[in-house]
Write a structure and sequence with these properties.
Rossmann fold, globular
């Protein structure tokens, strides 16, 4: 009898804590370091549809999709407050999957958020391969472009995020448009992101095969481990996926030879430029002092946006040389940095500016397009700027673009030219 009483007390304590946690989720307000006030209810309800296929009739079986999906569903529900996390195991064909997608399409309203996760085989020409998939015909295949993208277009949900952990999943982003041009420094950053309809996609790789099992943790795929680690290690009450995507990308790149996750906006599905999928971390919120009234999200110290310029959907570095960065450069020039090619590549990779860290050295083609709009830049030199494009006939040389006349040339990578970094997909 005494043991039963102790058990009942423990169960009631657990239930009470769970109720308190749910109350915090419903009533907590969030104040970001940028000063904007939010209420959790302002972001609508969250739903997840998680699809996995690991037992195939005609293709090689996979080892991790079920464990990946179960782990992700659990953290989305327990920590990120998803109202529903529906798991669809081993759908046989496209008709079965379309039926599930249509169910969500009919139920969700314009204030809801939907995350669709797929783990399974994929084909080079943009298909997800289900249980009945044949090797030499498209039986058991579902077209991402015709079925999934069409569903994104027809759904009323304001924000939809598709995550695909499959071979050749980069096909989803082939028609993507540029990422958000907003900065976290904006006073109403998250309100603006949420106000705009978004259709985003995160893929486990580009147009190549991807690893099923992570060499360091074979219970999950490399990509799933990277995504789970990002969700578990997060310390912000509120964040957009664009802000945290570099962490997933870094994990995958460190644990594979050439697998690179991609994140972008999906074209022709109703996406509005600037929209993004927003996560609310209840664990961070509940652990913050006075969380029943106001919680401050833990965000990085913002950088000044006066040193960036957005042109044709891409954000460009646009800052003069500063004495604080003297150790990073060999020379002090009025209009920017002058570096050897290898140092230019490293500099852009390590650059943190405007609240972002996913900068890179632009390609020759991107610099050529930028030259045509150079009048929009605040700091520009009439001289050569390094591109990331190596000269095909001699890998010790690379292309640069002369911003005096717009001509492109190739020269030794040991020579020093100006550097201007960019962020956004090529």
């Amino acid at each position: 009898m005494k043991q039963l009483l102790i058990l009942l007390v423990l169960l009631s304590t657990i239930a009470l804590n769970a109720d308190d946690y749910r109350t915090i989720q419903r009533h907590t307000s969030i104040v970001g370091n940028n000063g904007e006030n939010h209420k959790i209810g302002d972001f609508g309800n969250y739903y997840a549809l998680l699809i996995y296929v690991e037992r195939y009739q005609n293709l090689q079986n996979l080892h991790t999709p079920k464990k990946d999906v179960n782990a992700i569903a659990k953290i989305l529900k327990d920590r990120y407050g998803f109202t529903e996390t529906r798991i669809v195991p081993n759908p046989k064909n496209s008709d079965e999957l379309i039926g599930v997608l249509d169910d969500f399409k009919n139920r969700l309203n314009s204030n809801d958020n939907l995350l669709i996760y797929y783990a399974g085989h994929g084909s080079k020409n943009g298909y997800w391969q289900l249980v009945d998939a044949q090797k030499r015909t498209r039986v058991g295949w579902i077209s991402v472009k015709e079925a999934i993208n069409q569903t994104l277009k027809e759904m009323r949900s304001k924000h939809i995020l598709v995550i695909a952990d499959s071979c050749y999943s980069g096909f989803l982003t082939r028609d993507g448009v540029s990422m958000s041009n907003l900065s976290p420094n904006d006073k109403r950053y998250y309100s603006k992101l949420y106000a705009m309809k978004s259709r985003n996609v995160l893929t486990s790789g580009s147009l190549q095969p991807v690893l099923d099992q992570d060499p360091t943790n074979p219970n999950h795929s490399v990509f799933a481990n990277g995504f789970l680690k990002m969700l578990k290690k997060n310390s912000r009450a509120i964040f957009s996926l664009e802000e945290q995507y570099p962490k997933v990308k870094r994990y995958v790149r460190l644990n594979t030879e050439n697998q690179v996750p991609l994140y972008g906006d999906v074209k022709l599905t109703g996406h509005e430029d600037g929209g993004d999928f927003i996560f609310l971390d209840r664990k961070v919120i509940s652990k913050t002092k006075n969380s029943d009234t106001i919680v401050k999200s833990i965000e990085p110290k913002p950088h000044s946006t006066k040193y960036t310029t957005t042109i044709n959907g891409k954000m460009w570095q646009d800052e003069p040389y500063t004495k604080e960065e003297e150790k990073a450069y060999k020379k002090d020039y009025e209009y920017g940095k002058v570096l050897k090619w290898d140092n230019a590549m490293k500099y852009c990779k390590n650059l943190s500016l405007g609240g972002y860290s996913n900068w890179r050295l632009p390609s020759k083609e991107e610099l050529q397009k930028l030259y045509k709009n150079k009048n929009q830049l605040k700091n520009v030199a009439s001289s050569g700027y390094w591109s990331s494009t190596t000269y095909a006939s001699d890998s010790s040389h690379a292309w640069f673009v002369n911003f005096n006349n717009g001509y492109d040339y190739w020269y030794s990578k040991t020579y020093e030219y100006y550097v201007r970094c960019v962020r956004g997909r090529q």
